[in-house]
Amino acid sequence: MNRWVLGAGLLLATVVSVLLGVRLGSVPLTTAQVLEALRGGGDPVVRDIVVQLRLPRVLLGVLVGGGLAIAGATFQALLRNPLAEPYILGISGGASVGAVLVLAFGWMAAGSWALPLAAFAGALLAIVLVFRVATATGRAMDVRVLLLAGVVVAAFFSACIAFILSISPARTVQSAVLWIMGSLAGATWRGVLLTAAYTTPAAVLLIGLARPLNLLSIGEETAHHLGADVEKVKRTSLVVAALITASGVAVAGVIGFVGLVVPHAVRLLIGSDHRALLPLSFLAGAAFLTLADLAARLALSPTEIPIGVITAFIGVPFFLVLLRRSIAA
Amino acid sequence: MGRARVTHPSAGLRRVLPFLLVLAVFGCGESDRAGESRADDPSRGAADQRPVEIVDATGRTVLLDGPATRILSLVPSATLTLRAIGASDRLVGRTDYDDEPWASGLPSVGGGLEPNLEAIVTLRPDLVVRFAGSQDRRTPQRLDDLGIPHVAVRPDGIADVLETVRMLGQATGRRAEADSLATAIRSDLARLEARVAPLPRKSVAYVLGGTPPWVAGPGTYIHELVTLVGGDNVFADLDALYAPVSPEEVRSRRIEVVLASGVEAFDRSLAPEARIEIVDEGLEIPGPDLAISAHRLAELLHGPLPPVPPDAESPGP
Amino acid sequence: MRLRAERVVVRYPGSSVPALDDVSMDVPPGSLYAVLGPNGSGKSSLMRALLGLRRIEGRVLIDERPVGSWDRRELARAVGAVTQSESISFPLTTRELVAMGRYPYLGPLEREGEDDRAAIERALTACDLVGLAGRDVTTLSGGEFQRARLARALAQEPRALVLDEPTASLDVGHEMTILELLRSSADSGMTVLLITHGLDMAARFADRMLLLSRGRVAAEGSPAEVVREETLRAVYGWPLAVHQDPTTGAPRVTPLGSR
Q1: Which residues pair with C33 in a beta bridge?
Q2: Which of A161, B57, B185, C108 is the most buried (most CB within 10 A)?
């Protein structure tokens, strides 16, 4: 498939998802009501729903979905492993520990920012730990060590969470599980702006590293012989992709499948040239997560289904169909 | 320690016969030995030594040789009920969740679900009160293996509480005390209903926190309580007991009072015109003091209540 | 472009014996230079040292400049390297693989220009890959894949090629294709350094040879000078007979039985 055609299609899909996400929701509103609310008039309840609840939520879906997808594609290139995904370095584990600690000790009384902040801090801790282990030899960063360190750190954090929850009352356990399952429902304008402030330049930077990432995904020695600054590209892209993931997990919990499946689906359509793979993965992830969130809100309205369930239910069959088509081709 | 004959509604006679035979051989001797521990039990008094047959909350029939004197309650509200009917001196243990001062001297067996079985055995209870429901299948099975009688209670609603009171009164031989407790609860609730009847109903949402927020739907005890004290649950259209709802649902429904469980439970911008009342999460668990909880809830919703109308003295069904 | 190594010593951490010990080498421009030796004799270390991948004692001079003084991208434009092996985990067409050879010439998001496309086409043609250009590289045979990697190096339009056992797992037809290609490149002025196991092929195609043994130079010179029975026996620890091949005129090695 032509990459420009796919790009245009995904851009359109993202825009349409955003529009649908604002127009539709569990509370039925007419188009007129939605437009009026966007203009700043109408019933204050409708205005709150459209402008304070729906709009930040779909925008967060774009940012988090796109961020997870581009981070996933980057990790797959860096680690030269098709099974890599944004949480592979223990980032989700670290964030979850931070969140669970806040929930267990009731620190949320300090402010609604306590939870995302703690989650981000936990994610950073995981990144630093894994980074330190992988560069401990003082020489070049070995991505196999990185991968292994990530798996071990993730397991350690899982054990921490299990321990904390085992000595916590049922209410804490419930809150923790719900947070970990992930949701865009807590989206606020401040959260959206903060996430955008980080994700946008980070995504641009990663796209700028597309050529060396192409080389790195083949092999580090080859990349070096072709003139890439392997160490610098590895460290930069690793840190940037990890921080995109951390900021996504901090505001939205652990939403799975986006970072793993979306890059593969795009790769099946237009190949592994990261100059196209990275931006198109971003768009595909953005559209995917926004639509998944809409489904989460509408399917059993007024109840909301956890978004991780939707991403799995949609993501897996979609991917399998693409895979079969590519094998047949 | 009394031996128990247990028959399931669906059990065949074959299962019962061996026990009958064994009991016929050993039963007489057992009750002599058990008589020692019963003799110095102050709450026994001129008590009933006849066998007690109990049908518990799962429909299981449990037969005790006599009223239970060494009780372990794994269900906090059942513990409170035992205290309310004057049988708390028969308790030999508690769970980590029984944090009342008067229970602190009792040894704990851990959690109410998956308790420490070794600790249970050490306490030599002659009756264990446990949760109905399938979250912990291991404990009832092991109790059966160990020959320790157990009854299940379901602490889910007002009717359940009254049923538990009746059943525990039966199990401890303190039927009179249980009956008077049940009557008191019923008449308190009836009086309360009468007092709130003339007041305008308030639209209420009970929120447990989370993002998206979890709310109490129909079928929950909270819903029952709120409805009884003159509130209308705005989320009565939910299918489930507790469910996460879209924040915009909270925003769009007219709510007069939000009952927020726990301090961090609720984002006030979702109901800017509502009065937010923070309630203790203990309110969600029905127990023998439910009339007091109901009264507190009524005052939260309506403010000070008008006096009881003169004709509202008849207890409910 | 001349490649020179002067008294190079390469040590690996944890090993008391150096992998390369006092090795000197002079590869004149427009020649095919073969480096041989038993397993573990230091051939790959020599390649890594030559390309500036390892810290060394001694000097490596690329075009009379120390390798450390070359800018990475500048070096990639001058020297094309083909390592022993690589594995591809993601879908990639042959053309995309070969196009990576233009990386040293392009900016971060710069698109390929006329010159780049021409270089890629020339490389594909030289390696007889034009018909396979659109195929996924994971579907190529071993020989085709090696040709693609060589094409990538050629697309760099280098003045020197350094190859580590490029024909290791190839059948005779594919091996000959690549060696003839390297020979004609050398004849056109390219400096070709070839690390290989194949004594016969090296003797036939190379202008000069270097024989390594346990990190040291055992012999250096023309194939006739290096491929000698006593030298080879000492280095390989196996009885070998050397004859002149009637067809090619090059020395040919025959391993004798152990008895």
Answers
A1: C193, C208
A2: B185
Helices A3-23 and A258-270: crossing angle in degrees, nearest 10, is 140
Whole-number Å distance between alpha carbons of A91 and B268:
31
What fold characterizes domain C3-228?
Answer: Rossmann fold (3.40.50)
The end-to-end CA distance of chain B, in Å, is 37
Q: What is the identity of the amino acid at C82? A: V
Q: Tell me which amino acid residue B131 is.
A: F
Cα gap A304→B185, rounded to integer Å: 37
> Between chain A and chain B, how many beta carbons pairs sit less than 8 Å apart?
73
Q: How would DSSP label each residue in A164-227?
A: HHHTS-HHHHHHHHHHHH--STT--HHHHHHHHHHHHHHHHHHHHTHHHHHHHTT-HHHHHHTT
The shortest CB-CB distance from B246 to any of A26, A108, A171 is to A26
Q: According to the model, what pLDDT value does residue B6 have? A: 46
Cβ-based contacts of A76 with chain C (< 8 Å):
90
- Percentage of chain A exceeding pLDDT 70: 97
Nearest-angstrom CA–CA distance, A278 and B89: 70
Q: Go through the domains of chain B in sequence order and give each one's CATH number.
A: 5-173 (3.40.50.1980), 200-302 (3.40.50.1980)
Contact list, C109 vs chain A (CB under 8 Å): 207-208, 210-211, 275
How far is it, in rounded angstroms, from Cα C152 to Cα A223? Answer: 12
Q: Record the pTM.
A: 0.84
Whether residue B47 is predicted with pLDDT greater than 60 in this model: the reply is no
d(CA B208, CA B266): 8
Amino acid residing at B152? A
**Domain housing A90:** 3-328
Domain residue extents for chain C: 3-228
Q: Identify all chain C residues contacting A268, using CB atoms and an 8 Å cutoff.
A: 91
State the total domains in chain A. 1
Closest CA to A265 of A288, A242, A245, A244: A288
* Chain A residues lying within 8 Å of B264, measured CB to CB: 106, 108-109
Q: Which residues on adjacent β-strands are paired with residue B233?
A: B204
Taking 50 as the threshold, does the pLDDT of residue B36 lie above it?
A: no
- Residue B6, C-beta contacts closer than 8 angstroms, at least 6 positions apart: B60, B61, B62, B63, B144, B149
The answer for B 163-222 residues in CB contact with A (under 8 A) is 208-214
Residue A194, domain CATH: 1.10.3470.10
Which residue in the set C76, C87, C88 is minimally distant from A225, CB to CB? C76
Mean pLDDT of A86-102: 92
| pLDDT of residue A257 exceeding 80 | yes
Amino acid letter, A294: L
Upper half-sphere CA count for residue A195 (Cβ side, 13 Å): 30
Q: If we measure between CA atoms, which residue out of B236, B276, B232 comes closest to residue B258?
A: B276
- Of A323, A321, A317, A304, nearest to A82 by C-alpha is A323
Q: Average pLDDT of chain B?
A: 82
Is B53 at the interface with chain A, CB within 8 A?
no
